[in-house]
Structures are given as structure tokens and as C-alpha cells.
Structure to design on (227 residues):
């Protein structure tokens, strides 16, 4: 009921993570102005965009997109920082819904299911949640694309990749992924992989490789941001 929401906002007001202004809704993390200024890429409308191009010649990814471009030190860095390191789960749902709005009227809306990039169980236990799953839940709510967990699992920790070249990074992270127990047959299905940040693309490449190695499927990738 709206009156309950209004009462909660009165006694427990929330503030915009970027500018600090009072928020209009208990489900928001940005005010209207900061949400409007979010540096969105609009890549979902173009298959030949910079995110898609990262995977050209690496894995047979049909299309990739990101909600906005990440710049270190920008005011919007707080969004991802709060989600990943400060336990702000609401930020994950919120960013997922924003991402879902971008995907809804694009080729990504035809996907049959979406999966979050998994994290290792030790990290999940320590953090209490998988930020990519929170984003995926928000995106699923908007797009209606079913969310499937544990199709791909993180079976081990990867080593530090700081001094590795691209092939070494891929080999390192690829060994960390495997299919979950008793997977269904996803032949000819369009699978959308969801993650928070895209940097080198090694993690998403390895996750895609795990799917394509076992299924004759079509892989799509969407992240909240790319650097």
C-alpha cells in the first residue's frame, strides 16, 4: 500500500547515492536528476557496438551491451561500490531494472533465459549475495526473461591476473567454471549472461565458453557498466 511506503520514507528517508538528495521512492537509489544524467551507452540498439566487439574473434557471442560507461573516480562509481562492497542489495535490483529497460525493446528481449555470472561459494558466504544475481533479478522483473541460477557454477578460485596476457587470463578463469549438476538441454536457446562490470571480458568469455562447449545455443551478454 502506498501509505505504508510514504510512512516508511517519512521516518526512514533514503538519499541519492550520487548527490545525497532525498529520494522519491523506497525502491530507488538515484534521484530523478542523477538517473537522467546517468551516462547510458544505448548499445542495446546496435549489435556492432564496443561491448560486442570485445568478443569478436574470441567467442561466438551474438551481441553484448552495457547500461553505462564506467569511469574511475566518477560520481557514479558509488553505485557499483555500494553494491559490491557495502551490502547495498537494493542497488543491485535498481541497476538491474534500469538495465532491463534498455534490454526490453531490443534484440536482447528475445532471449529465452538469463543467468548471472556465478561467484565462488566462499565469496558468496562471506558477502551474503551474488551481485550479478541481484542485477539479473531486477532485469528479469522488467523484461520477463526467466532467471536460471546454477546453470554455470564457479568451481574454484582463479589466480591473480595482473601480470597475465589475454590467453593466460582466459585459461586461468576458464578452469574456474563448469556446468551445474544435471543441466537441462538448452539446444538452440538464447541465453543472456548478466554481470556487473565488463573490463577485459575474460570472465564473461570463459562463462560463454562453458555454455557453448556443451550446448548448441546462442549467447548474449549484458552488464551494468563497461570500462
Amino acid at each position: 500500500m502506498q501509505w505504508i511506503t510514504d510512512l516508511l520514507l517519512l521516518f526512514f528517508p533514503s538519499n541519492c547515492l550520487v548527490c545525497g538528495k532525498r529520494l522519491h521512492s523506497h525502491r530507488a537509489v538515484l534521484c530523478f536528476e542523477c538517473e537522467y544524467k546517468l551516462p547510458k551507452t544505448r548499445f542495446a540498439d546496435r549489435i556492432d557496438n564496443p561491448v560486442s566487439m570485445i568478443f569478436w574473434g574470441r567467442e561466438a557471442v551474438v551481441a553484448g551491451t552495457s547500461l553505462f560507461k564506467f569511469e574511475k573516480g566518477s560520481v557514479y562509481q558509488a553505485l557499483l561500490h555500494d553494491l559490491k562492497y557495502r551490502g547495498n542489495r537494493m542497488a543491485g535490483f535498481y541497476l538491474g531494472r534500469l538495465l532491463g529497460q534498455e534490454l526490453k525493446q531490443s534484440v536482447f528481449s528475445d532471449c529465452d533465459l538469463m543467468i548471472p555470472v556465478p561467484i565462488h561459494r566462499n565469496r558468496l558466504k562471506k558477502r551474503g549475495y551474488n551481485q550479478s544475481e541481484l542485477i539479473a533479478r531486477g532485469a528479469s522483473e522488467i523484461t520477463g526473461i526467466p532467471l536460471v541460477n546454477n546453470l554455470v557454477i564457479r568451481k574454484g578460485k582463479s589466480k591473480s591476473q595482473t601480470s597475465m596476457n589475454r590467453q593466460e587470463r582466459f585459461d586461468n578463469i576458464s578452469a574456474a567454471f563448469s556446468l551445474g549438476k544435471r543441466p537441462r538441454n538448452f539446444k538452440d536457446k538464447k541465453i543472456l549472461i548478466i554481470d556487473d562490470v565488463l573490463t577485459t571480458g575474460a570472465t564473461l568469455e570463459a562463462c560463454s565458453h562453458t555454455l557453448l562447449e556443451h550446448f548448441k545455443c546462442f549467447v548474449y551478454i549484458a552488464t551494468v557498466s563497461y570500462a
Residues 114 and 192 are 4 Å apart (CA to CA).
